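Appendix B. Chain record.
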Amino acid sequence: MVPGVITALTSPPFATSSSRSSRFRVGVERPPELHRRRSSAVPEVRCEASPAPPLTEERIESGASVTGGAYDFSRATTSLTGKMLDSSKRVTLVRHGLSSWNEEGRVQGSSNLSVLTETGVKQAERCRQALSEMHFDQCFSSPISRAKTTAEVLWQGREEPVIFLDSLKEAHLFYLEGMKNVDARKIYPKEYTTWREDPSNFCVYGVYPVRELWGTAREAWKEILLSPGKDFLVVTHKSLLRALICVALGLGPERFRATDINNGGISVFSFNKKGEAMLQSLNMTTHMYQDHVYKF
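Structure tokens predicted for this chain:
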């Protein structure tokens, strides 16, 4: 136990209002020993909070308080659309299932040669079951094979077609694509090390793939959020998902590896009418190991 912590918790400045009023009433001089103790204490810091906005009936009846959810997240992040939306939105992000190059330990990037494996198809089916009680107005996907097949499994049985967006494609990693990680490390040690340890500064032929990914992610968010509907399903790749998440939360390319998304991992964002984001769930994978249905 740390004495300083105990003192801080039990000293008068942190006493409850009731104990403070009963012991130190106006006009009553404090005992000398309390003056001495206070003089050696850390200087008092006063914070003035701005008045909290009134809780309207609509906000109270939303039920957010039942689970400790936020009543509002206005200005928590910056708008991704630059214009008002017709309604609030919810976007569910899913990473594609296990691919052949995932299994072989190869660098994938934007290559279309890595396809969904049998295990990957089963993972996509698990995702479909896990999201079976959630409503979606539209499904957006990368047109690259491993994501495209995952989206088709998730969306099967629906009348509306999957919408394929180029802005959901994975980062282009040039000559590293298709190489086994162990070989890329040996043949291109500088480039590979930069890609793994300092990805925002990874550069090939004057191009910075991760930095470009941030611009692509902003474009994807606009395309998705300005589409008709309120609830969207998005299927794409790990690097693009990292960019989507970071861009939504106001994080730069240097935070590229601040999040990780597993094959079949599910993340959920809410957006208010201003296009401001709040991350509700990140990389949920319970459904990968047991039968589980998510409800939002």
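Further analysis of this model is presented in Appendix C.
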